[in-house]
Specification:
This protein is of the alpha+beta class and 306 residues long. Helices cover 23% and strands 25% of the residues. It has 7 helices and 14 strands. A hairpin with a 2-residue loop joins strand 8 (130-134) and strand 9.
């Protein structure tokens, strides 16, 4: 087992997974603190590296493309303080960091983990229920339903429509973008079959973000929703053809006429055998193999043996 403990957090590798626990240092971003402990299975890793520095080094995990819903929705746009897969390493702990890297790399080689993209999520995503208020609204998600509520900063055209609620099954996509310079960010929910405004401030299914401290938390909401939707790289399912008009079943082929079976002679005292024969004749008659006339003739012959 390999472990490195820093103010920024604690990483532990047991051969099967890397357990990441965020620290309480002021440099730990709000997103990492809110996300909490993360367990990254070995099969979700594409690599690991340590970058030494004069003041501090950086230990980084590189996940396979498509393995983590958080990385999927953020697309490499998370700020350093919000990245759960980066650990600040003090200069005197560089040797421990290098040992950690060697242990993970050796395990990746031994298990022959494919570093390429995956078509399914290998991490569970943030826990639900989750509620985040930032920008011009609040998003609440319980694992099935998304609810958007507005505040005093919301444009009247969007706020006048009231709160919005919809299910994950109604969504086509969920997107998150951070604020950059004078451009606001957003979290956008695209409903299947619905037209969408290009401006987040007017879109009733988009919360506009103004670049404040809580903005990255909306990425957690987006990840919690995305992990419950079809994976973007999942193989497309072939559409099931609609049933055509019902066709009449072809008539069953006519059976050749069956002669009434001649009961074998049986001793008069063997009543059980005669009763079984009667039952068999009744079943043949019910199945349509014997006509009523044939059944009556055969039945009379057996009854005459009692």
């Amino acid at each position: 087992m390999a472990e490195i403990i820093q103010k920024d957090g604690t990483w532990t590798f047991d051969g099967d997974a890397v357990r990441i626990v965020p620290g309480r240092d002021k440099g730990v971003g709000l997103l990492r603190q809110t996300l909490g402990e993360v367990l990254v299975p070995l099969r979700a890793l594409a690599g690991v590296s340590y970058e030494p520095g004069r003041k501090a080094g950086r230990l980084r995990l590189r996940l396979r493309d498509g393995a983590d819903p958080l990385l999927q929705v953020t697309g490499g746009r998370l700020p350093e303080a919000s990245d759960p897969y980066r650990l600040t390493v003090e200069p005197d702990r560089g040797g421990v960091a290098e040992y950690f890297v060697d242990e993970v790399r050796n395990a990746l080689l031994l298990d022959q983990v494919d570093p390429g993209p995956t078509d399914s999520y290998l991490l569970p995503g943030p826990a639900v229920p989750i509620t985040v208020g930032a920008g011009d609204g609040t998003v609440a998600f319980d694992g099935d339903r998304v609810c958007l509520e507005w505040n005093w900063t919301t444009e009247e055209a969007k706020r006048s429509g009231g709160a919005r609620e919809f299910r994950v099954a109604d969504l086509r996509s969920v997107e998150w973008a951070p604020s950059r310079g004078l451009e606001n960010g957003w979290i956008r929910f695209a409903l299947a079959g619905a037209t969408q405004s290009s401006a987040p401030k007017y879109d009733p299914h988009t919360v506009e973000l103004f670049g404040f401290k809580k903005d990255p938390l909306m990425a957690l909401v987006a990840a919690a929703v995305a992990v419950r939707m079809p994976h973007p790289a999942a193989p497309a399912q072939e559409p099931v053809p609609e049933p055509g008009p019902a066709l009449a079943a072809p008539p069953a082929p006519a059976l050749p006429p069956v002669a009434a079976p001649s009961p074998a002679p049986a001793p008069a005292e063997d009543h059980d055998a005669l009763l079984r024969r009667l039952r068999e004749l009744g079943e043949l008659h019910q199945a349509g193999i014997l006509t009523a006339e044939e059944f009556t003739t055969a039945k009379a012959a057996i009854l005459g043996r009692f």
